[in-house]
Amino acid sequence: MASWLRLAAVLFPVAVVGRHDLAARQSSTVTVNLDQKYQVIDGFGCSEAFQRAVQMSKLTEDQQQYTLDLLFSTTKGAGLSILRNGIGSSPDMSADHMVSIQPKSPGGPSSAPQYVWDGSDNKQLWVSQEAVKRGVKTIYADAWSAPGYMKTNGNDANGGSLCGVGGASCSSGDWRQAYADYLVQYIKYYLEANVTITHVGFLNEPELTTSYASMRSSGSQAADFIKVLGPTLEKANLSSVGINCCDAEGWSSQAGMLGQLASVDQYLSTITAHSYTSSPGSPMNTRHRVWQ
Is 63 helix (H, G, I), strand (E, B) or coil? Predict the structure, then answer.
């Protein structure tokens, strides 16, 4: 299951070398110019989506605090500064599903919402609060999929597209506004718990159809939704929340989507990409920040 930022331990093979080779290597000089700036790093982070936060909550109190310190403390651990939460789309919490704040369809895209907030969000709210206590200021809430009733396949898993974007019509109607309202309500629930979501996303690896939460989207289809999400955030006085897009599976895949996002450039905050199918080989051609 794909994650946005991962911590990796890299083990290098150790070779036995002769004295001559060792002496040559020891004589090498490395020069570091602290005044030379190449790029800005927004931070490093992790995700406790797909009920990993639930697993953490089942530890003893001492183990919980130890684990949280290892992740987020700048004095006792890694000092990670970004947390990526999964916005649930599932009707239940079976297996490792992330339950939705609106598990059942309200009846249609224009029907009054029927949100359900359990004050937990798969225990991600608790992890977020603990991360904030330890200095984390960047919280990225991202949905792997819209709820199934908003999609062409009627399921939050197995691909399908958001009803209403280009090429994705549904008998139930256009769900773009309802999905935007849904994301805004999620952000508001966190605000009520004194946690500020700084960035929001609505896709994860949109090139993939998977047996878990997934939603297909091209760059043009993403733009069709951002045209609705941007103004909806502004209307809710949440224009400070940055819109991220699109967490493509590979760096080159995301680069290929950029041109299709040009019409909504004013609403974008950060371009997000993974490196499972292609690694970063060159900078993205964008004025926006880029996260991998």
Answer: helix
Stretch (H or E) spanning 132: helix 124-133
Beta bridge partners of 162: 151
Q: What angle do CA 242, 243, 249 make, to 5 degrees?
A: 130
Amino acid, single-letter form, for residue 289: R
Alpha-carbon gap, residue 262 to 283, rounded angstroms? 17
- The fold adopted by the segment(s) 39-291 is TIM Barrel (3.20.20)
- Give the pLDDT confidence score for residue 24 in this predicted structure: 58
CA distances from 61 to 67, 87, 135, 181 (A): 10, 26, 20, 36
Q: Given a cut of 90, is residue 6 above it in pLDDT?
A: no
* Cross-strand pairs, 87: 143
Comparing CA positions, the residue from 280, 272, 277 lying closest to residue 288 is: 272
Q: What average pLDDT score do residues 161-174 get?
A: 98
Q: Which distant-in-sequence residues (6+ apart) come within 8 Å of 148 by Cβ?
A: 89, 91, 154, 155, 156, 157, 160
- Rounded-to-integer distance, Cα 292 and Cα 290, Å: 7
Closest CA to 229 of 87, 126, 118: 87
Neighbours of 39 (CB within 10 A): 6
- What would the two tokens of residue 146 be? 């819209």
Range 44-55 burial, b when 16+ CB lie within 10 A, else e: ebbbbbbbbbbe
